[in-house]
Amino acid sequence: MLRLIYRSVVSTDPAMRGRSAGLCLLLPLTIFSLFIGRVSGFKICSYNVQNFTLSKASDLRMLHTFTRVVSRCDICLLLHVVDPDGKAIKALLSNLSRKLFRYNRDRYLSVASKGLGNSPGDMQQYVFIYRAHSVKVTGQYQYTGQPFVRPPFVVRFSSNKTAIPEFILIPLHSDPDQAVQEIDGLYDVFVEVSTQWNNTNVMFLGDFHAGCAYVTRSDRKDIRLYSDSSFSWLIGDREDTTVNDITNCAFDRIVVHGQTFLKAIQPFSGKVFNFGREFKLPQRKVLEMSDHFPIEVTLKSPALLLQATPPLIFLCISVIVQCFL
Ligand SMILES: *[C@@H]1O[C@H](CO)[C@@H](O)[C@H](O)[C@H]1NC(C)=O
Ligand SMILES: *[C@@H]1O[C@H](CO)[C@@H](O)[C@H](O)[C@H]1NC(C)=O
Ligand SMILES: *[C@@H]1O[C@H](CO)[C@@H](O)[C@H](O)[C@H]1NC(C)=O
Ligand SMILES: *[C@@H]1O[C@H](CO)[C@@H](O)[C@H](O)[C@H]1NC(C)=O
Asked: Which cysteine pairs are covalently linked by disulfides here (predicted)?
């Protein structure tokens, strides 16, 4: 297949020779860098999908876009999922697996909390979607302490594709009216969970409402995740995680505990994924899906080149060699 592409590129027309020599190098390099792009690093994402119900998952255009967003991530936390019978997530998973099937045998799985909240009309689930091929769930645990409206559903993951083989994710979709107390309360979740599992490699992620009027600069002294310097905030205060032009707030955040975890993260990889810009979708379409953008961070791979499959390296080299024969 590749040889065919290359043959058609390397024309026998002498006038084309000069240009094709460049292509000879460019083609394999492009393929290789695309491939490295796929394996270099392990993405963890969080997306407030604002009332993700079966009706959202049944809209094929929206489902397609959700699939494109989630398929970039090795683990993707979805917040504000309303799917008590699991049908909406099942549709997303089957679309995700279908999309991947063309490239490899990878599949996606999910782990979800029960509906959480204090009013029957607004029960929301935390859902983690992850690549079955490279990620394993090694523990899960529903926190029950105060002061949360939707207490974190804590999951421990392991993966051979990261520099940090086992880590714990603590999600939060805070109640805006008590965001300061809930973000501060994450410290207690951290203490309980890290003791129970004897593992302090913990990441907090989600829609904390940690910006604009809900959490001001002066509120920070009351939040232990800010005052204790062993926690690092990877999504900055100047980021805008909201879709609307009118609002400019860093509501969604990713925070990690400890130097071990921090060192395993690619520097400056914490960011908002503006998929409207990336996929060239009008704001109206993006807002149909949610009023938030996804956020993400990339973990380093244990050893980059070892993961590039030998056949691919061989293919690239042979294309280069053939060019000069
Ligand atoms: C969530 O979506 C469902 C339809 O899928 C709708 O009936 C419900 O009112 C929505 N809830 C909120 C809080 O927007
Ligand atoms: C995606 O899910 C919908 C169900 O909502 C299903 O009808 C459709 O066939 C799926 N598409 C793919 C490509 O799996
Ligand atoms: C990582 O590798 C070990 C040994 O090869 C294997 O037992 C384990 O299941 C792998 N873990 C994952 C998450 O793939
Ligand atoms: C906890 O983990 C550390 C290494 O991270 C290990 O040295 C220690 O023995 C563990 N403690 C228990 C009780 O398992």
From this structure: 212-249
**Cα of 196 from ligand 4 centre, angstroms:** 11
> Would you call 278 exposed, middle or buried from its count of C-beta atoms within 10 A (0-12, 13-18, 19+)?
exposed
Atom of ligand 1 nearest to the CA of 53: 5
Q: Encode the chain (325 residues) as per-residue pLDDT tens digits.
A: 444 444 444 444 444 445 555 556 666 655 555 555 445 689 999 999 999 999 999 999 999 999 999 999 999 999 999 999 999 999 999 999 876 555 556 789 999 999 999 999 999 999 999 999 899 999 999 999 999 999 999 999 999 999 999 999 999 999 999 999 999 999 999 999 999 999 999 999 999 999 999 999 999 999 999 999 999 999 999 999 999 999 999 999 999 999 999 999 999 999 999 999 999 999 999 999 999 999 999 999 986 545 555 556 666 667 766 766 6
| 240 Cα distance to chain centroid | 17
User: How many residues would you count in the chain?
Assistant: 325
Residue ranges of alpha helices (H) inside the chain are 2-9, 14-39, 54-57, 60-70, 87-101, 179-197, 224-227, 259-263, 275-278, 283-289, 304-307, 310-323
For residues 233 and 5, is the Cβ–Cβ distance under 8 A?
A: no
Instruction: Write the DSSP symbol of residue 215.
Output: S
Q: In sequence order, which residues have a C-beta less than 8 Å from that of residue 197 and are 6 or more positions away?
A: 139, 156, 168
What residues does each domain of the chain span? 1-6+20-31+310-320, 42-300
Q: Which atom in ligand 3 lies closest to the alpha carbon of residue 159?
A: 13
Give the ligand 2 atom nearest the CA of 54. Answer: 5
Atom of ligand 3 nearest to the CA of 136: 13
Q: Which residues face 153 on adjacent strands? A: 142
**Alpha carbon nearest to ligand 2 atom 5, residue:** 58
Q: How far is the CA of 222 from the centre of ligand 4 (A)?
A: 31
Classify 110 as helix, strand or coil: strand
The CA 205 to ligand 3 mean position distance, Å, reads 25
Top-level CATH class of 42-300? alpha beta
Residue whose Cα lies nearest atom 8 of ligand 1: it is 51
